[in-house]
């Protein structure tokens, strides 16, 4: 059994304080040498994840897909894309990971399917008003000849979320709704078949050993059946956070709870209102949801303190653990974001050519790692974060794949820059990601030799060493503190808190070195102390008992 066996074997509430590592399979490791990461690659690197000390892995979608949106356009929810391997291999991977004490969380995409999904193909082939079309949102257009979209909504990826179909006779037909890309038609969640299908998909993956599911776009599934124009401030919103969702997740929770041992539901819930967010975490709904509020905040003590306070205050009444997320496959990488003048994250403000101080961002990313790993709750760690990878901002334009980039008319750099294949070893691309001579699906920078797992593993000052140490200490010193959390008073630009009697964390977001609070030993620091003082943009973990 691996070092995580304590978490894996005897804790049904393992997810409450788990460290969950996000694997973007396309960019993790290429086992078959075709330039794209795959399940064989993940299997070969499981020992790396076990050594890092993570409790679970969340896999981004691995289903058959035309990859119009990196696999979030699913053609078959019960299989694996040949690009990644086979269904049998996914089962083997889940079993092998489990033997190393690592649980597997599978990504479920219920809001939409691929336009190549058999249901959508059948809907296109069927007539307006047919039962096949009823599984989606087909509508006639507005305007004299139906030439205008049925309403004024805006796609989550920008542009119009409606695409007009062509009738069998070649004439223009109805429109269908897609909140994301054209190739991602939205399902009609008012239809019972859509519900049954997803309940069956959940069981399919739980039966194959998945310890949980991550639910994509979890707050968007249900639409106002009238599909009205969007009027700002209207309550309820026509397509986000609708009351009917809670009933759906209650039925999913009942399925998860029907399994021996725990199966968890993790929601991707983007909602500006934290109280509305917490409603998804009531005891009979989702187990946890990503805390995007924390992730979106600037690197400023008051902003982060406010987010931590609000998060803990809103999770406590529903009995759900908080989660702490610094980045993921949609978000500008932490090292880059924290190296900018504006350290917030906001999809709307992403542009090319933002000046960035990567050394500063790296220092802050190290401190942020110790901050998030010391807070009560679960932590999500996106592959490459433990290597301090920056966003790759100079990808050749002809290699970009993200529909967000294309739908913005080219002004938004898109999300490819945080999805560049991991550097494992060696001094030149493909850095052990693929066999030598193979060009990975996205090119890796020429200066990543110092960021490889190999280079960092033997460097005591590397961010990888910091993460390994932090995860080890977290298990023994932070884990037992449960929910205990209390701020220490002091400098307003310093975040300092205790977790029970034995442990405290201090993060210096001020411009000057500060004294450490009372302690009996320094367990870990994100960078060297300066004559016993904690320098700016640094964090320390302290033993206090
Ligand atoms: C959220 C996913 O994280 C993102 O990558 C995807 O593009 C959208 N949902 C649509 O599925």
Structure, described:
The protein is an alpha/beta fold. 26% of the residues lie in helices and 13% in strands. The chain is built from 15 helices and 16 strands. The longest helix is centred in the last third of the chain and has 17 residues, at 358-374. It is globular. The structure holds 1-deoxynojirimycin. 1-deoxynojirimycin (NOJ) binds at residues 69-70, 72, 109, 180, 216-217, 268, 329-330.
**Radius of gyration, taken over Cα atoms and rounded to an integer in Å:** 23 Å
Care to count the β-strands? 16
Tally of helical segments: 15
Categorize the overall geometry.
globular
Strand content: 5-15%
Low-confidence stretches: 1-10
Round the mean pLDDT to the nearest integer and report it: 96
Strand order, main sheet: write it out.
Answer: 9-8-7-3-2-1-11-10
Helix content: 25-40%
The distinct ligands, each listed once, are: 1-deoxynojirimycin
How many strands, which pairing sense, and closed or not: the largest β-sheet? Answer: 8 strands, parallel
Question: What is the rounded distance between the termini?
Answer: 31 Å
Structural class call reads: alpha/beta
């Amino acid at each position: 059994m691996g070092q995580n066996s304590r978490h894996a074997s005897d804790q049904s509430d393992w997810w409450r304080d788990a460290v969950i590592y996000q694997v973007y399979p396309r960019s993790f490791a290429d086992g078959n040498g075709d330039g794209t990461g795959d399940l064989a690659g993940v299997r070969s690197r499981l020992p790396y994840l076990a050594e890092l000390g993570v409790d679970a892995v969340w896999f981004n979608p691995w289903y058959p897909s035309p990859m119009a949106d990196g696999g979030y356009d699913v053609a078959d929810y019960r299989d694996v894309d040949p690009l990644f391997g086979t269904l049998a291999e996914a089962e083997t991977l889940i079993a092998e990971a489990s033997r190393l004490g690592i649980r597997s969380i599978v990504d479920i995409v219920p809001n939409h399917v691929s336009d190549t999904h058999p249901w959508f193909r059948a809907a296109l082939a069927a007539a307006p008003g047919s039962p096949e079309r009823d599984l989606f949102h087909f509508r006639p257009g507005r305007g004299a000849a139906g030439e205008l979209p049925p309403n004024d909504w805006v796609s989550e990826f920008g542009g119009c979320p409606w695409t007009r179909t062509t009738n069998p006779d070649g004439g223009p037909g109805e429109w269908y709704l897609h909140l994301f890309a054209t190739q991602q038609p939205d399902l009609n969640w008012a239809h019972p078949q859509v519900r049954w299908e997803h309940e069956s998909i959940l069981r399919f993956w739980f039966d194959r050993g998945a310890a949980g599911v991550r639910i994509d776009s979890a707050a968007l599934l249900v639409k106002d059946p009238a599909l009205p124009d969007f009027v700002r401030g209207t309550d309820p919103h026509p397509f986000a956070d609708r009351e009917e969702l809670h009933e759906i997740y209650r039925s999913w929770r009942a399925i998860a709870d029907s399994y021996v041992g725990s199966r968890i539901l993790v929601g991707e819930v983007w909602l500006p209102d934290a109280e509305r967010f917490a409603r998804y975490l009531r005891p009979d709904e989702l187990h946890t949801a990503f805390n995007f509020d924390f992730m979106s905040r600037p690197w400023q003590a008051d902003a982060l303190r406010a987010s931590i306070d609000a998060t803990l205050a809103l999770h406590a009444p529903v009995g759900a653990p908080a989660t702490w997320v610094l980045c993921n496959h949609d978000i500008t990488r932490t090292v880059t974001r924290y190296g900018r003048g504006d350290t917030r994250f906001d999809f709307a403000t992403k542009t090319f050519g933002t000046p960035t101080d990567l050394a500063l961002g790296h220092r802050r990313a190290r401190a942020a790692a110790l901050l998030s790993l010391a807070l009560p709750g679960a932590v999500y760690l996106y592959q490459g974060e433990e290597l301090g990878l920056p966003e790759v901002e100079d990808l050749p334009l002809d290699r970009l794949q993200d529909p967000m980039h294309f739908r913005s008319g080219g002004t938004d750099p898109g999300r490819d820059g945080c999805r560049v294949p991991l550097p494992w070893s060696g001094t030149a691309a493909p850095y052990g990601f693929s066999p030598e001579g193979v060009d990975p699906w996205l090119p890796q920078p020429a200066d990543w030799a110092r960021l490889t797992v190999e280079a960092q593993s033997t460097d005591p000052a590397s961010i990888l060493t910091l993460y390994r140490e932090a995860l080890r200490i977290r298990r023994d010193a932070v884990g037992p503190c449960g929910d205990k959390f209390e701020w220490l008073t002091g400098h307003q630009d310093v975040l300092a808190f205790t977790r029970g009697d034995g442990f405290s964390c201090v993060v210096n977001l001020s411009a000057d070195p500060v004294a450490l609070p009372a302690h009996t030993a320094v367990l870990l620091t994100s960078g060297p102390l300066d004559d016993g003082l904690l320098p700016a943009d640094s964090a320390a973990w302290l033993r206090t008992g």
